[in-house]
Amino acid sequence: MNHDDLRDWSKRAADWAHDYHTGLRGRPVRAPLVPGKIAAQLPAVPPEQPEPMEQVFADFEAILPGITHWQHPRFFAYFPANASPASMLAEQLANAIAAQGMIWQTSPAVTEVEQVMMTWLRQGFGLADHFTGTIHDSATTATLSAVLTMREAALTWKGLSQGLSGAPRMRLYCSAQTHSSVDKAARVAGIGQDNLVKIATDDHLAMRPDALQAAIQADRDQGYLPIGVILCCGGTSVGAFDTLTECIAIAHAADLPTHVDAAWAGSAMICPEFRELWAGIDGADSIVINPHKWLGAQFDCAVQFLRDPTPQVRTLGLRPSYLETAGKEDIVNFNEWTVPLGRRFRALKLWFTLRAYGLDGLRQRIRNHVKWSCEAAEEIAKIPGIVLTTNPRLSLFTFACATDDATETLLNKINDDGRIYLTQTRHEGKYVIRMQVGQFDCTREDVMMAPKVIAELME
Q1: Torsion angle, CA of 164/165/167/168, rounded to 10 degrees?
Q2: Owning domain of residue 52
Q3: Cβ distance 222 to 203 under 8 Å?
Q4: How far apart are CA 154 and CA 191, in angstroms?
Q5: CB 421 within 8 A of CB 74
Q6: CA torsion, points 380, 382, 388, 394, in degrees to nearest 10?
Q7: Is residue 353 part of a domain?
Q8: Alpha-carbon dihedral 190, 191, 194, 198, rounded to 10 degrees
Q9: Which of 48, 101, 157, 267 could pair with 343 in a Cys bridge, judged by C-beta atoms 3.0 to 4.6 Å apart?
């Protein structure tokens, strides 16, 4: 295949993508869960000779029954991984350029567009001017970067050279409502799962500031080394929000940095009326938000805002001679802000998306999702045998039947039916069903399909 072939097949792929998206409502949202079925369709060995693209494309279409359609307008399961048309166009162009923006000089536009997009987003979210930031692949990497920085700051950066074998026992604090990426960061950073202290929450599932303060003091009394606090802003399970102002004040009084996981809910903060949910955010040292979840930027695209990037660059940055730009030592090299050296041109899809829809267009989508989620929750609560277990937090709510077995049976029926896709979590020891509205192109009719399907299946 050469570039002339690519031109022709790109046009065909664009037509295919248009037909795919316009026909999604006619497909079941979730793929049938039959392990090994798709792998069995593929040859066991790679081809020795080139194969015609007609056959390659036909085989691609043959695996579609194994695809769960994340862009389906009735995908209400996990937080979405949205892909607006403008974002998809930007990804095509980024793929064509195929720049590796590991340092400024390897593509100045990659770095500089990223810098401007972080400024645009900071303004869009209403964050204070002292924040700067960078784009990661996912919130997991952003959180790991923040935790590594907490570790090294606590060790006065000796861990980077001396390792952790002689280090004191470190302690990291969060609540049980934070995402499992925090647990992974504790493991990967060498803190250890047992040293991730889950702080008690109040009746609203927010971290109790008094319990945080007591835990920090108790650990110091034991001779442990507290290194930082991770706060939750829109938890994955049921949408919990910590009280940021109080918790950040306690952390900073204890001389501990804070990282706020706002991966999902942060996107909603382009709407000023929702910002009370993260009151106090400007006191945070680090914040992660995923525009690929709710702002239409195609996966992967996670942004991390930093009050001061210096500690993170000191932790993660390396600049051997082959990564220097002669005469420009003060330039920004974003690989020094994160774990990977290689960097895709992720800022391009943010640039296209923000310009193609504008903040007002994106706000209207989010406001619709929140409104429609509340309407759907009200209707689902009217169905006999169903009870809401958590009310909508932005566009996420949960519900259940009388028993765990009945709830699980209902969820299996819903997802096997195919018209909508939901998922589960455990809340206060109970198996519950999550519904989250956020797919970029969904309509009120799509959302209200959920109570209709559930009511039918409960009969």
Answers
A1: 120
A2: 37-64
A3: no
A4: 12
A5: yes
A6: 50
A7: no
A8: -140
A9: 101
Quote the CA–CA distance of 165 and 180 in Å, as a whole number. Answer: 25
Which amino acid makes up residue 361? G
CATH code for the domain of 292: 3.40.640.10
Provide the CB-side half-sphere exposure for 93 (13 A, CA): 14
Q: Are residues 162 and 271 in the same domain?
A: yes
CATH of the domain at 420: 3.90.1150.170
- Does residue 7 lie within any of the structural domains? yes
For the residues of 70-102, what is the DSSP string, one character each? TT-TTB-SSSP----HHHHHHHHHHHHH----S
- State whether 384 and 247 are in the same domain: no
Quote the number of domains for the chain. 3
Q: Centre a 10 Å sphere on the Cβ of residue 71 and count the other Cβ atoms it contains.
A: 19
Report pTM: 0.93
Cβ neighbours of 403 (radius 10 Å): 11
Q: How far, in Å, CA of 439 to CA of 365, rounded?
A: 9
Residues 416 and 334 in one domain: no
Determine the residue type at 316.
L
Alpha carbons 338 and 304: distance in angstroms, whole number: 10
Same domain, 154 and 266: yes
Q: Is residue 403 part of a domain?
A: yes
Least Cα distance to 391 among 374, 366, 371 occurs for: 374
Q: Is residue 90 part of a domain?
A: no
Residues 24 and 141 in one domain: no
Structure tokens at 154: 């606590």
Same domain (yes/no): 131, 60: no
Residues 269 and 416 in one domain: no
In whole angstroms, what is the distance from residue 411 CA to residue 76 CA?
Answer: 12
Written as tens digits, the pLDDT of the chain (459 aa) is 899 998 999 999 999 999 999 999 999 998 887 888 889 989 999 999 999 999 999 999 999 989 999 999 999 999 989 999 999 999 999 999 889 888 888 888 989 999 999 999 999 999 999 999 999 999 999 999 999 999 999 999 999 999 998 899 999 999 988 888 899 999 999 999 999 999 999 999 999 999 999 999 999 999 999 999 999 999 988 999 999 999 999 999 999 999 999 999 999 999 999 999 999 999 999 999 999 999 999 999 999 999 999 999 999 987 766 566 555 567 888 888 999 888 998 999 999 999 999 999 999 999 999 999 999 999 999 999 999 999 999 999 999 999 999 999 999 999 999 999 999 999 999 999 999 999 999 999 999 999 999 999 998
